[in-house]
Records
---
Amino acid sequence: MITEEQSSQAVAEILGRYRREKKNLIPLLQEVQTRVGYLPRKALQEIADFLKMSDVEVWGVATFYNQFRFIPLGKYHTVVCMGTACHLAGGRLILEALERELGIKVGETAEDGNFSLERVACIGCCMLAPVAVIGDKIHPKMTPFKVEEALIPYRQEAGGELREGKSRGKS
Ligand code: FES
């Protein structure tokens, strides 16, 4: 995970390439999120200062669009496809099963930082519907009953790391 210092450096570098114009707010938010992975509160403040806008104004714009995240993604970012083919094949049930199993809702990251959950539009493999992606692995033809089993290797890996003292702090 990116450290606070790395995040500040990235934000400073990005701001250095933009003019101080309000119309640059959305592109700035997008670029910072791409580099940092989410929009830390400090970055929002730095953007507000740069554009000479109030924190509230920047926060209001950022929270208006659901493309922006305000917490880091989990180590194993989990997405459930809700495109037409996956939706018709039971994508909603997969999503609900993952919410139950992970103890988080869509758009959230688990407190231990291991899993985050999102819904996405078609990811381009409709023949395998319904599809979930955990970490970087596609899980085709998912069913709610396969969810717990699909999570086992990730939980084992995360558990192993914790035992080895490699737990990750959230920023
Ligand atoms: S609709 Fe899910 S992969 Fe296309």
---
Amino acid sequence: MQQEQHSSLPQADAASVAHSQRVAQFIGRKIAAAGGKISFAEYMHHALYAPGLGYYCAGTTKFGEAGDYITAPETSSVFGHVLARQCASVLAEVESPSILEFGAGSGKLAADILTMLAEMDAIPDSYKILEVSAELRERQEAFLASAIPELVDRVSWLDRLPEQLSGVIVANEVLDALPVERFVRRDHGVMQLCVAVKDGSFVSAERDAPDTLATAIAAIEEQLGRQLPDGYVSEVCTAAPQWIGDLGRVLRHGAAFLFDYGVSRREYYAPERSGGWLRCHFRHHAHADPFILPGIQDITAWVDFSAAAAAAVARGLDVAGFVTQAQFLIGGGLDQVLADFAELPIDAQLKLSGQVKLLTLPGQMGENFKCLGLTRGRITRPAAFGLADRTTSL
Ligand SMILES: C[S@@+](CC[C@H](N)C(=O)[O-])C[C@H]1O[C@@H](n2cnc3c(N)ncnc32)[C@H](O)[C@@H]1O
């Protein structure tokens, strides 16, 4: 397989190129075994999660300045500290409370939440992490052992979902990392966009959509009240309803905070958004070509939050709110968290102010990132949803 690289992207080092070559060959064999095409969702799954090979399952840096992209917890502890305050109010209302974090990345969010909860004297009975990547799990274990040695005994890693949980579920940028189907609407029906190999490179190909995909698009069009136009290309995350459904099955009493970049269904499938919401990240450069650098670049898709909310409601959860990240942080006690830092030297305060801008400004992470809040049972609505709730837009 040839490894092309866009001239606008930073050059990958030789070891990364060699790794990507192995990932490409692995996916190439899967395509050959499937008769010449695999769905885009399968391609994305292998590129991100193939054991020992995929982006999340091999040793690249990924998060932070030395990696490919920066997430809110990596940007500043302020994010985790505000979220912890919201968790504390929920934890206080349930018996034997726990926190369950999906996809904990480097472990930074877990460290920040537990540190703040310890300060508030509101530590839960346990902090569980469910992480699909064995490599990241090892990294989280090492990081938490050194970052919060006095609290790490509260943390445990799960291999599968618990039977039930009372307390809080947290997931930051997990929904966008679930593999998505890509499709093109034709007047005569829905076609599934697949991945094939041509002249040694990955290329897009089409085939009739399988029933699951055709049904998902039919449901979207029914809700929109119109058929998508001929030639319209987009994504649908058929895995998300199952993931949210599992979360809903597990949560007995408490709340879930799901953060991600995303929009309502109406915006997701707006006529002018043909082309979809796929984004790839390599060394802090965002682009739209998922076929280059497999295994060493992140592939993500924005989230259809209407679909997420509908899946939650179908599982008996209540929507507590849907707000931008900026509104979540401001409504959730950003001012109190910042007051804790008031004694810092001036250079540290300036640095912090830059981080807060990154988290909250509309042109940065403040507006595109949202939080969907879900609850089950009697739970006081978390204060973070008190400002400019957009649930009705879903
Ligand atoms: C974009 S990273 C976000 C990491 C971290 N939450 C942060 O904000 O820095 C996505 C994370 O989700 C994990 N992940 C993907 N699918 C998952 C699933 N179904 N269950 C649990 N974790 C998952 C990945 O391995 C990775 O740790």
